[in-house]
Amino acid sequence: MTIKTLSLIFCITLLAGCSSSPVSLQYYVLHSPSSSVAPSITTAKHYVQIQQILLPDYLEQRSLTMQTGPSTLYFSQNHVWAEPMSTGFAHALRDALWEAGQIFVMPDDMYSEMYPVISLHIRIDDFVATFDGNVMIKGQYWWNDMHQNPQIKNFDFRRPQQADGFARTVEQMRALTLDVATAIAKDMQTEN
After folding, report:
1. Are 81 and 21 in contact (CB under 8 A)?
2. Cβ of 16: how many Cβ atoms within 10 Å?
3. pTM score of the predicted model
4. Which one of 14, 25, 33, 173 is at 20 to 30 Å from 150 when CA atoms are compared?
5. What is the pLDDT of residues 158-172, one digit of tens each?
6. Alpha-carbon gap, residue 23 to 66, rounded angstroms
7. Cβ contacts of residue 186 below 8 Å, gap of 6+?
8. Sign of the CA dihedral running 100, 79, 129, 49
9. Please, which residues have CB within 8 angstroms of residue 79's CB and are 6 or more apart in sequence?
10. Considering only CA atoms, which of 66, 35, 27, 46 is closest in space to residue 181?
11. Taking the CB of residue 40, how many other CB atoms lie within 10 A of it?
């Protein structure tokens, strides 16, 4: 083959690659940016600092995940989180804790003797749409009460997938975050 022929083949290949349409990405946030929740430090019943959110490896990456079988996961290339899951979950939980029990989430660098702050830790084992038509969140949360006694609770909440699509899954994930916040609020109310 001559150099002209090779050059022509290269140019055609290059143009063919440029003509394909780019992959369209859909970004999602777990918290609701349009939420009208306005926590007030002066009317709060409890004050917490979220010290730790532990996630499984499959939630540490940006792709939305779906369970496709008893032991298999699908990672979407086109549907991705707009922020890390730990950040999104912390934002969603902050709003949900206020809604569920007037629990004010204090900024990490803020402490005052006026407000007895509880250090909240959360470990999420699973947070995924399942192959059997549910969306689920499972894990543990814990804190030390005012007497430094550890309070450890397990949670496992599931909601039926109401419709197909990642947008509906994210809506159910928001509702599940509220379920976790409601359990935390209830436990804080009875323990403290």
Report:
1. no
2. 9
3. 0.83
4. 173
5. 999 988 889 999 999
6. 20
7. 101
8. negative
9. 25, 26, 28, 63, 64, 166
10. 46
11. 9
The pair phi, psi for residue 120, each rounded to 5°, is -105, 135
Confirm if 185 and 98 have CB atoms less than 8 A apart: no
Q: Does domain 24-191 have CATH number 3.40.50.10610?
A: yes
Helix runs in the chain, H state only: 3-19, 85-101, 166-191
8 A C-beta contact, residue 111 and residue 89: no
CB 161 within 8 A of CB 134: yes
Place of tokens 């038509």: 133
Residue 162 DSSP one-character state: -
pLDDT tens digits for range 19-73:
556 668 999 999 888 766 677 788 889 889 999 999 999 999 999 999 999 999 9
